[in-house]
Specification:
heterodimer, A: 180 residues, mainly alpha, elongated, B: 264 residues, 2 domains, 2 strands
């Protein structure tokens, strides 16, 4: 990044950090807080700090994306188990209800996964709440389901927890960077 | 991008830096004199505080979910005594979490914006919605599951069954679900996400907690409406009245239907 344009001349019109228009008399950029009249070192530090935060933000966004994908996996697994139950159940009344319930649950999970692109924290919180409720419901009605596919369940829960933590940290980073 | 925690100082009259108090242009994100960020968080909470809030929300949700699932899906707790015990447990859970966060929730018990017109409007909308939902759900239950669902069947053998049904279906949920979901849960969510997301999450959790498949379709809009009223009016009491009117109408229409059926 060409820092000299902002530090030495008086004809600055754009900030070296965010490229927004600036007033020549200002000591700091009113859009990003870049020290327009600070020393070269201060300006370098500002840019470095900003870049570091942007890298962290990217990492957090990657984890958030993973949690969004976990919602899609659950949607697919729920739909699949609905189909399997439909195929294996002998009671015709129950089997269509099971398929219907599983399909609606799968649609909800998929919709939350899709929504997580825009509002990750809200989508992951809602998704994990639904997942927890279904888990508790299954555990209460047939306790053995707690242990079926336990490794996958742990993987999903860990993914959700990490996703929520990342979304919180990403919010903080975005606030620090003042981007939205 | 999620910029919902940040409220940029766009107010035309507030043109002073929040740190150095120098005059700055309206809409400035940073002070041109000291470089301080001109942002105001609606609810200033750090990442750690947000995580603690989520853990508390999770605990409340899991306790509620375990109680609801055990009560609704096991045969052991079907007696009336257990029904009362479970309702008291759920109410205690909501009240405990509400008072545990008393500093942030106490303002919700005020009713500064009281207006009889508003109250009538909200209650009337609840009654109309309740009639619509009763009709549609009744039809869906008959069409999909070929059964007529009755709340009163559980209470009809009891002395003062109707009165008991009204207290357990209309009064208790109206008060304690509001305290739990629009009181504690929504207020806590506001420490983590912005208003719109908090309204959605609270409505979603409120809806799924009822563990009823068909109810999900009207419980989400109903939860959204209650949460919206609570956010708009900054009090729990409109929501309590709306919730009561909604559930009370369900009870009344069932009594009417039963009498109608008996007469013919």
């Amino acid at each position: 990044m060409d820092l000299t344009t902002t530090t030495t001349t008086n004809q600055i019109t754009n900030c070296a950090s965010c490229f927004n228009q600036i007033n020549q008399d200002d000591a700091f950029c009113t859009s990003c807080g870049y020290p327009l009249k600070g020393s070269e070192e201060e300006q370098k530090n500002f840019i470095m700090e900003k870049n570091t935060k942007e890298i962290y933000l990217e990492e957090e966004n990657r984890q958030i994306k993973k949690s969004g994908y976990a919602l899609y996996y659950i949607a697919a697994a729920t739909f699949l188990s609905g189909l399997i139950l439909y195929g294996t159940s002998k009671n015709p009344e129950i089997k269509s209800t099971l398929l219907l319930v599983n399909t609606v649950l799968a649609v909800i999970y998929a919709a939350l996964g899709f929504w997580s692109k825009w509002k990750p924290l809200a989508a992951i919180i809602s998704g994990s709440a639904l997942y927890a409720l279904v888990f508790i419901l299954n555990a209460v009605t047939s306790p053995l389901t707690i242990f079926s596919g336990i490794i996958l369940k742990i993987f999903i829960v860990v993914n959700f927890v990490r996703g929520i933590q990342s979304a919180i940290r990403a919010d903080k980073l975005r606030k620090d960077l003042n981007i939205g | 991008m999620d910029n919902l925690h940040i409220h940029i100082n766009n107010d035309e009259t507030a043109t002073h830096c929040s740190t150095c108090n120098e005059q700055i242009a309206p809409g400035s994100r940073f002070c041109k004199y000291c470089g301080a960020a001109q942002i105001q968080e609606c609810y200033t909470s750090s990442s750690e505080e947000k995580w603690i809030a989520i853990k508390q929300l999770g605990l409340f949700f899991v306790i509620d979910a375990v109680i609801c699932c055990i009560a609704g899906f096991t045969d052991f707790f079907k007696s009336f005594t257990w029904h009362v015990t479970i309702d008291i447990l759920l109410a205690s859970c909501a009240v405990f979490f509400f008072f545990y966060n008393w500093r942030s929730t106490r303002s919700l018990l005020n009713w500064k914006s009281f207006s009889i017109t508003k109250l009538l409007f909200y209650c009337l909308s609840a009654i109309l919605a309740s009639f619509t939902v009763s009709f549609v759900v009744g039809w869906l239950n008959r069409a999909l599951f070929s059964k007529v669902f009755s709340y009163y069947a559980f209470y009809e053998d009891l002395h003062h069954g109707k009165l008991i049904m009204i207290s357990f279906i209309a009064v208790m949920p109206a008060l304690f679900e509001e305290i739990g979901y629009r009181g504690f849960l929504l207020q806590k969510l506001l420490q983590v996400v912005d208003k719109k997301q908090a309204i959605f999450i609270s409505a979603f959790l409120f809806a799924i907690m009822h563990t009823s498949f068909i109810s999900l379709f009207w419980l989400i809009p109903f939860g959204l409406y209650l949460a919206y009223i609570r956010m708009k009016e900054n009090t729990l009491w409109y929501g309590v009245c709306v919730h009561f009117c909604f559930n009370f109408t369900v009870c009344m229409s069932e009594f009417y239907r039963l009498e109608h059926l008996y007469r013919h």
